[in-house]
Amino acid sequence: MQHTMTLQPKPFERIRKGQKTIEMRLYDSKRRQIQPGDTILFTCTASPYDTLTVQVQSLHIFPDFAALYAALPLTACGYTEEELPTASPDDMTQYYTPTQQKQCGVVGIRIVLMKSSCSDRPAQNAISC
Q: Which run of H or E residues covers position 9?
């Protein structure tokens, strides 16, 4: 099954470069449908024709981001070595409230990049990156 999600430019580029191999999300009804072997088509929020296709390797489910941050390697979650001293589960509250985390839980989706495409134009006029 293929799923679709959007990503901010910074994590999008880190997945493209192979620096981010775990995507962190709320474990809501949409993410509960994801299974290992499925694919996810990520679209960059800054460019709707810039996409990544990844394959889901595994799911790591936690009650909140504090538990996820304690258990998973943060460099795989998209932080650089330089960012590790200031990395905090609170970073995720810009996306998901503590109430949402408590209600749904959170998930670390381990992924591997399969395909990357970028273009300023719609797919029928796309150019190779």
A: helix 9-16
